[in-house]
Specification:
6 helices, single chain, about 40% helix
């Protein structure tokens, strides 16, 4: 019942559009709409996807006073160089008002034909001509285009194992969905026990 907490209904897309899948398209549009709402409110926002689980460390974590983009959980291609690394994960993200505004505008630009791909993504082979990056890739591109945005990284949340709404399901998902769900439930239980 906290007035600071709100549920945001996700968007769905009927077709992939300029993305690899319809799920990626819908995820991108959901985050874009949410960022526009956060920008209009002029307040910091923490965005939690429905498969976000907090780690015990979350209770003691305190953000610094100055920040624009906050990763609360992620997988880094190069953990030793987070600022320049490709980052996977958007299950726990925070944005300052200026970051939300600038990022929403950036996401809208990426939807226009003829956008300029991220040079580092192209150099590393992470860009396919004609295909926009998924939302977590767009965050990386935005941060590279806006180095003035102060980014803070913390490992206070994980992405719970669940069937993806973005990618196509695994063979197990398609052939034995109940077994796939049971395997994910066991994986999540084991992960919590290992903490």
């Amino acid at each position: 019942d906290d007035e600071r907490v709100a549920f945001f209904p996700g968007s769905t897309a009927q077709d992939p559009g300029p993305f690899a899948s319809a799920g990626e398209h819908g995820c991108y549009l959901s985050h874009l709409a949410l960022l526009k709402r956060a920008s209009a409110a002029g307040k910091r926002v923490l965005v939690l996807e429905d498969d976000c689980d907090f780690l015990p460390e979350a209770g003691d974590y305190a953000l610094p006073d100055e920040w624009d983009v906050f990763y609360g959980g992620y997988t880094a291609e190069d953990p030793g160089d987070l600022e320049n690394s490709n980052i996977i994960g958007a299950h726990c993200m925070g944005y300052s008002p200026r970051a939300a505004s600038a990022f929403a505008a950036y996401l809208e630009e990426l939807l226009k034909p003829g956008f300029e791909p991220d040079a580092l993504a192209v150099a590393r082979g992470h860009y396919r001509p004609g295909v926009n990056p998924p939302f977590d890739g767009a965050i990386v591109w935005f941060r590279r285009a806006h180095p003035e945005m102060k980014t803070v990284f913390a490992q206070i949340a994980v992405q719970r194992s669940s069937r993806s709404d973005i990618a196509s399901g695994t063979l197990l998902d398609r052939t034995m969905p109940a077994a796939a769900a049971a395997a994910r439930k066991a994986k999540n239980w084991l992960r919590k026990r290992a903490r």
